[in-house]
Amino acid sequence: MTIQRKKHTKGAVGERRSHHALKKINLNKCPKCGKAVEPHKACLFCGNYKGREVIKIKTKKAKKKIE
Question: Is 38 among the domain residues?
Answer without folding.
Answer: yes
